[in-house]
Amino acid sequence: xxxxxxxxxxxxxxxxxxxxxxxxxxxxxLMRDEIDLKIxxxxxxxPHFNPDLEHPTPPEAITQFRGLLRAADAILICTxxxxxxxxxxxxxxxDWTVSSCEFSKKPTALITASxxxxxxxxxxxxxxxxxxxxxxNHTNLVISYIKTKVSPTGEITDTGTKEQILHVMHALVAxxxxxxxxxxxxxY
Length: 188
Ligand SMILES: Cc1cc2nc3c(=O)[nH]c(=O)nc-3n(C[C@H](O)[C@H](O)[C@H](O)COP(=O)(O)O)c2cc1C
Description:
- The protein is α/β, with parallel strands linked by helices.
- 34% of the residues lie in helices and 15% in strands.
- The chain has a five-stranded parallel sheet, with helices on both faces.
- α1 links the parallel β1 (5-11) and β2.
- It starts with a strand and ends in an 11-residue tail after the last helix.
- Bound molecules: flavin mononucleotide (FMN).
């Protein structure tokens, strides 16, 4: 029998009552027959990025974070937008992977779930592009007015949103089945 794929999800919000975290829990449940989704909620525990700290040995929390990403078949990022940009803690976590290349060629999906979300999404897509993440037009999605679409108990209450998320997740699974790097266009 084929091994069940193991994906890691990075939650871009550090709030206890985060809708992005609720969304990730809902996705883990929706996809549980196809993948194991491990949700990483520790971005706020990572030290501030400083290239001087990378050598000779990076901080233990960074070694663990990098190992988690490296071991995953795919990475899903689910994040709000803050002040028209990417939340600082999330960007900090990604900065730690630039020299160690965990995103390079890795099947990746980005869901920005926010009040609006487009500017932060565009900025993070540019970052993912420059670090060579394998993110395509089918594996990125902006969900605006997120608080009207996911309940605090982790239910996706909007049918259209649920369909869009399933589309993204199935496209992400497909990327892991077809490892060659796919070039994305510049939609974002
Ligand atoms: C300081 C701050 C700035 C925000 N800026 C934006 C923004 O620029 N665009 C946006 O869509 N939402 C913005 N929001 C709203 C958040 O996206 C919204 O609260 C979202 O649900 C937070 O995600 P979470 O529920 O996963 O924590 C902001 C919220 C805060 C607290």
